[in-house]
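Risk register update: the risk that structure generation would not scale has been downgraded. Supporting records follow, first protein first.
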Amino acid sequence: MYASCVFEGIRVELSKAPYQNCTFKQYLVVVDGGSMAIDGCQFNGCQWAFEGAAANGIAFLKYLCSIDPSIAAMIAAEFGLTEKKKLH
């Protein structure tokens, strides 16, 4: 477990370890669909990458949204998105 650490300038896969009250600066943050334990962390100036199962899930949601507006509305509501912030 990483606790109260500051990480700067490299790549981190969030499923590789638990993170508590950590700060990530200028990082490439990778979400790969694995189990994650993140509590109280801050992400400043980070880039995000979705790989593996996470990328597959996002691609499937994107497809569903493109074929059925009611699904897009349901997903937007689930994520708390306002009408000004639409899923594409």
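Supporting record for the second protein:
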Amino acid sequence: MTLPTPPSFPGGAIYEAISDTSMDGFLLLDRRGRIMDANPTACNLLGYVRSELLQMGIGDYEIGENAGETAAHLAKIESGGGKRFTTD
């Protein structure tokens, strides 16, 4: 199986520099909540290697939410809002 590569954004080098050096963990999700990219800090905080995270979705480890709540949060993000997902 071929793993997806980080998305191509204008200024992709900037994306990679921020992703690779950020002290905050962040995940890039698709519209279904599947993980498309994970920075090294997210991998360390969640206890997975990147290849494992790319096989998962936000619902695989989101704490305290059911599938309906997670779907509502993803819809809010897509409409231009934001959401901070938290884990223990």
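The chain has a mean pLDDT of 79. On this basis the risk owner (M.S.) recommends closing the item.
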